[in-house]
């Protein structure tokens, strides 16, 4: 891979993939709709000679074609808001796949684990797709669209991440907790504090995603991006408090509390149906990655949390 375009480059996963590609000496085009945010990425990378950007609309495949006309791989990191998923997710998939098919490109889709529903077996890539939520069923349709036989020239793969955290994270379930602690303010934790859950550190995820993308035989498949193990909310908060010194109250939000907040907040209303993951968790197997790619990067939670919180505190002080 010599050149790549990152769609949704200003998002949490988009930013770390841009960084990982540049670290490997790969030329990168950051694609997004916000001039201001794209300028920020250029500034963060000190106007790196191998980084350029293209303004465009993810729902207009022609703008993607124009941006990606001479790249080796398209990384699709753009997403839609929860409350817009029903009306926009499949349109996004259609647009991006049409662009990749027009160009005959390889394309990597970054997605989550809603397609699986409750964990009923080993959490490998062959886990049954038995979603019991609207979002999960829609994600199954999304996967079917990506791997549809109607695309004659595109070569696609899907990487699936659990919950995540990291310096670039923006919309993860841990974000309000970590931002509150970094700002030394009272905050919330989505879910109960006792359930051990899997989280992947975004820089680790980026390494795995790019490693997968570089293998020609990776395409046409789903790939898991596992984290460094399981950790409870209680232990996350303990680490975060040790890093920041903050002792402000953290309020765990149950499904009932989320449902009540949802009466006034459209986003939280959409969170209710996936609260099962905060109670049960879902553990991804990394055996396929280890067998076909190599060792899984596993930044310890303490180190990952320190790096994340230090950046959040820095931004808070600037703020």
From TrEMBL:
It holds the Pfam family Epimerase. Residues 5-225 form the NAD-dependent epimerase/dehydratase domain. GO terms for molecular function: aldehyde dehydrogenase (NAD+) activity. GO terms for cellular component: cytoplasm. It comes from the Bacteria. Transmembrane segments: none annotated. This is SDR family NAD(P)-dependent oxidoreductase.
